[in-house]
Write a structure and sequence with these properties.
This protein is mainly alpha-helical and about 190 residues long. The chain has helices at about 1-5, 15-25, 30-40, 45-55, 60-70, 75-80, 100-105, 140-160, 165-185; strands at about 10, 60, 85, 95. The longest helix is centred in the C-terminal third of the chain and has 20 residues, at about 165-185.
Length: about 190
C-alpha cells in the first residue's frame, strides 16, 4: 500500500534538476535528457516536459523522477529533495538510499498536530480577488484605471523569471478575473 502511495506522489525537482544538469560533463541538454528518458520507456516525456520541470511549472511523477535521476547519475532521493548532496571521491554527486525515505512520510499522522509557518517568499504576495472590490467613493473611471494598473502589475509578475508555480497560478487567476471585469464593465 505504501508503494502505491509513493507512485502517485508528485515531486518538485526544479532546483536539483537544474543543478544536476549543470554539473554533467559535457552538459546535457534538455532535449538529450528527454530522449534518454523516452528510451527508458517514458515516451510521453519531451524536451518541453524537462524544461517545465526545471522551471518549476510542473512536478515530476515518481517514475519520471527515477528515470531523470538515472540519466543524470544522481539518486532519486537527492533529485526529489529528500537527501543532502554528498560529494564522492570521484567528484560526482551521490546521495540517499532510494525512495525508502519517502515511505517514512507516508506513515499515519500522529495525534499531535504541528503547525509550521510557510517559508517567506521573496516575491510580493498576490493581492487576490479582494483587490478588485470597488469602493463606494470610486467613480467608474477611477475603478477602471485601478483595474488596469492592477492588471499591469499581474502581467509583470506573470513574466517574471523564477516565480514559483503556485504563486504564478494565483497571479494568473487574478489576471483572468481582472480581464473579465474590464470586459464586462462598460
Amino acid at each position: 500500500m505504501i508503494s502505491e502511495a509513493i507512485d502517485n506522489r508528485r515531486w518538485r525537482i526544479a532546483k536539483t534538476l537544474k543543478e544536476a544538469r549543470a554539473k554533467t560533463s559535457p552538459k546535457l541538454s534538455q532535449a538529450e535528457i528527454a530522449r534518454q528518458v523516452a528510451q527508458s520507456g517514458l515516451t510521453h516525456v519531451t524536451e518541453r516536459h524537462i524544461s517545465r520541470f526545471e522551471l518549476g511549472y510542473m512536478e515530476a511523477s515518481t517514475a519520471e523522477a527515477k528515470s531523470i535521476a538515472a540519466v543524470l547519475g544522481v539518486s532519486t532521493d537527492w533529485l526529489c529533495g529528500h537527501a543532502p548532496a554528498v560529494s564522492s571521491s570521484s567528484g560526482s554527486t551521490v546521495a540517499g538510499v532510494g525512495l525508502a525515505r519517502a515511505a517514512e512520510t507516508q506513515s499515519p499522522p500522529s495525534t499531535k498536530t504541528v503547525v509550521a509557518s510557510p517559508p517567506a517568499s521573496k516575491w510580493p504576495p498576490c493581492p487576490g480577488p479582494s483587490a478588485m472590490v470597488r469602493g463606494n467613493e470610486e467613480s467608474d473611471s477611477n475603478y477602471r484605471a485601478r483595474l488596469i494598473e492592477l492588471r499591469a502589475q499581474t502581467q509583470k509578475m506573470l513574466h517574471t523569471s523564477g516565480l514559483p508555480a503556485a504563486e504564478w497560478r494565483q497571479w494568473r487567476e487574478l489576471e483572468r478575473l481582472i480581464a473579465d471585469a474590464l470586459r464586462n464593465d462598460p
